[in-house]
Fold these 4 entries.
Entry 1:
Amino acid sequence: MSCDPERVTGYVDGALDEAQRAEVLAHLAACPACREQEASERSLRSRLQALPALEPRPGFEERLRRRLYRKAPWRLLVPVAAVVLLAVWVRGSPSFVAWELARDHRHCFSRETLPAEVWSGDPEVVARWFQGHGTELPAIPAAAAGLDLVGARFCGLPDASRVAHVYYSGEARHVSLYVVPRKVRGEAWWGAADGRVVRMLRTGGAQVGLVGDTRDDVSAFERALSTRVASGPAAGK
C-alpha cells in the first residue's frame, strides 16, 4: 500500500480487519513518515487518557448559558457542530471506550466490597436481572481461567453512558465483562488502558468489553464467551 493517513489512524484505533492490519504493518516497516504519524497518534491518545477529570467552577454553567444566549445563533452553529462531531468521534473510538471500561474496572475492584446490585454465580440469574432492567446479555459463562461469576450491576462511564458490568473474581485476580450500548469503531480490538488488558468484540449481537489483569485471563474469557454464544441463545431467554 502507499501512504494512507486514514488507514494509519484506523490501525492505531484498532478499527482495521486482520488483512488491513497486515498491510499497514508491512507499510510501517518501510515508511518512516507513517511510523512517525503512528507514534504521534499513540502519544496523543496516551496524553488525552491521562488527563484528570475537571470540575467547572461554581456558577460556570449559568454564566456560560447567559453568554451564549446573548450571541446570535448563526455565530454558534459552526463551533457547536464541530464540538458535536468531535464528541461523536471520540465516543466511538475503541481506545477511548477501553479507557472508560478499564477505569471503571479499577474503581469497582478497588473497593473493600464490590458494589454489585445482583449477587449470584448463576449466569441465568444475572441475565434475568438485566433483562428485567431492559438490557440483554450474551450467553455469559459461570467461570473461566479460575475466576468465578460473583455478581453484576450497571455502572456509569465518564461520557455519561451506562453499561452492564458483570464481575468475575478469583485469587487476587479479576475480570470484568461489559455490554456497551453504543457503536464502537472496529468490532475487534486488543489494547491496554489504565494498566489493564482490554478486549473489545462483538458477540451474541452485543458489543462486549473484557477487562482483566493479564492477556491470558482475557483470552480465556473470550473463548468461554464464544463457546457459550455458539452453543445456544443468551441465558435466560
Entry 2:
Amino acid sequence: MLIGGGIAAAGGVAVGLARLDDEHIPRTAVLAAAFFVASLIHVPVGPVQAHLVLNGLAGVVLGWAAFPALLVALLLQAILFGFGGLTTLGVNTTVMAAPAVACHYLFAWGVRRHGPKVTFLCGALAGGGAVLLSGLLACAALITTGRRFTAVAEAVLLAHVPVLVIEGLITGCVAGFLRKVKPELLDLRAPARAEK
C-alpha cells in the first residue's frame, strides 16, 4: 500500500508540475496554505478527528496542480506537527489529491462557464464529492492493510459525513465568491454571462 501510494503520488505530482506554469504558482501556494490551515482545525467525531480539507476547492481551481500543492501541505504537517507521518505521505497525498483532480474534471466546467446558481451547485458538489472520494480511498487503504483496521475504516467514513456537507457548502460559497471578486483564479477572462 505504501509503495503503491508513493508511486501514484509521484506520478500525480509529476503531471501537476509539468502543467504548472509560472503564472499559476501563487494561486497554487495560496491553496496549499488554505489546505494546511484548514486541516489543522480538528473536531472530535467519535473515536476519530474530523477536519476541513478543501481538496474539492483545490481541484476546481488547480486541476492537476492539486497534487504538488497538497503534497507540500501534507509534508509540512508531517514535519511540523507529526500528522500523517512521512512513511504514509504518498498514500495521504493520493487520498487527498486524486479526488481533487477527479472533481476538477467533473465540476470545474460548471464553476467556470455558467451563472451563479450553477457555480454554487458545482462548487458544492466538488467540495462534498472530493471529501466523499477521499473518505472512500482512506477506507480502502485501511482495509487492504489488514482486517484489524476495518473498524477504524468504518469510523473514518462516518466521520466524513458531516464534513462532506459542511465542505460542500463552504466550497460552493467560495466558488461563487471567487467568481465575483477574483474570476481569474477560476480562469475566467471575461465577465461571467448572466444566468438564464
Entry 3:
Amino acid sequence: MPHFLITNDDGVDAPGLLALAQEMRKLGDVTVIAPDRNWSASGHVKTLHRPIRTKKAVLADGTGALAIDGAPADCVALAVLGVVETPIDLVVSGINPSPNLSYDMLYSGTVSAAAEAVICGIPGIAVSTDHPLNPRADRDYTTAAVTARRIAERAIANGLHAGLLLNVNVPHLPLDELKGWRITRQGIRRYEDELLINHDPQGNPYYWIGGKFPTGEPADGTDIGAVQGGYVSIMPLHLDLTDYKKQAAFMQDGWEWGPEN
C-alpha cells in the first residue's frame, strides 16, 4: 500500500489540506505535515539558520497531523530526513485555493513543496483550484481532491519515478461539469501589481504590494487556456532551468566569456 505525504502552503488548518488528505486515504496510508501558518507566495524557502519546531495538530475530521513553524519545503525535508520513519512514495501538495499558473509557479509554496520532494528523490504533485475571488463564496474542494486522487492513481499505475513533478490546476466546477484533462505547457501570466505606500505612527513609510488579480493569455495548449476552458491542466515540470537554446547561441555566436586582460 503506498504511503503519501500530504502538505500545503496555506497552513495545517486549511480546508483544502483536509479535503486532499481524506481523498488520498482511499489509495493508501497518509501522513500530514504542514506549516503552522500561511506561506502563500513564499517561493522555495528552506530554513537553515534557526531550529524548526514541530507540534501535534488535529484536523477537522479528528485525524492527526504535524504542524511545523517552517516553510512548505521544510515539511517535505523534515519528513524525508527522519521525522517520518516510513518511506514516502509520493508527496501531494495542496489543495491551493487559487490557481498556480504560468509564472505563479515561481512564487508558489504549493509547487515548492512538490519540487522539494523531487530534490529529495521522491515524486511530487502540486494541486491548485481556481476558486471565486469573493472570500465569502463557498469553496468546495471536492472536484480538485477527486482529481488529485485520480492523477495519483494513474501515476502509481504507470510506475512512480523520482523525477515526476506535476503542477495540476483544476477549474472550480462540479466534477461532472469538467470537460476533461489536458497535458499543458506554461502560458503567459499578466500581473497588474501596485505599490501601496503608508506611514506608521512614527512617520516611517511602509509598503504593501497590491493590485488586481493576475490575468493571462488563454492560448491553446497552455495551462491558462485549459483552466479557462473548463479542463484540468496537468503540466509536467522539471527542475533544470537551463536555457539550452541560449546556451548554444552563446557558444556559437562569438561571445567572449573569458577573463579580461
Entry 4:
Amino acid sequence: MRVNEATLDLIKRFEGLRLKAYLDAAGVWTICYGHTSRAGPPKVKPGMKLTKVECDEILQRDIEKFADQVAKAIKPEILERLNENQFGALVSFAYNVGIGNLRRSSVLRAVNEGRFSDVPRLLMRWTKAGGKRLRGLVRRRRAEGRLWLTPVGGKRPPLPAIVRHKKDELATRPRLAAAWSAFLASLITLIAAFWREIMSWLGF
C-alpha cells in the first residue's frame, strides 16, 4: 500500500526540516525530516549539511522502508481492509516511535484484532518522552488519530468521529476531563445568566 500525500504532509509538519545535522532529544545525530543513521544511508555525522531536494529524497526512501515494515506487521486480511489514511497514520506513528515499538504496541494489537475504533484512543498513550508528557507528541498523536478517522478524499473526520475521539481521550485523563466539565458548567451558567439579563431588559 502506498503512502499518500496526507501522511507525508503530517510527517513533514511534525518532524520539521533541518538542513544541518543536530543532536535530537535522545542525543542521536539527526538531519532533514528526522532522519538518523538507523534508518539507513546516508549516515548522519556532525557538521553534515544537505539541501531540501536531498532531504525530500531521503524522506521518501525512509518512508518506503517504514511502510514496508508496517505492512509486514499487519495481518494480510486486515491490511486489505485499511484505507490509505489508516495505513498512513500507522506509518507516521512507526516513523516517530520506531517499528519495534509499533510491533509491541496495543495500537498494532487493536488493528490486527479488527478493533479499528480503538486506534485513536490507543495512539494517545504514546505522548511521553523521558517520562514527561510532551505537547508536541500530544499534537502528533491527535493528528494521527484524526488522519485514521478521515475518509479518503476528505479533509477532516466526520463530526461524530471527532466527538468520540475527544471523549475517549478525556476518559484516559480524569483531571483533564474534570477541568473540561468545570469549564463547560461555568460557561453554561454564564450563558444562562446572560440570557436572563436579556429577557429582563426586553421586559419578559
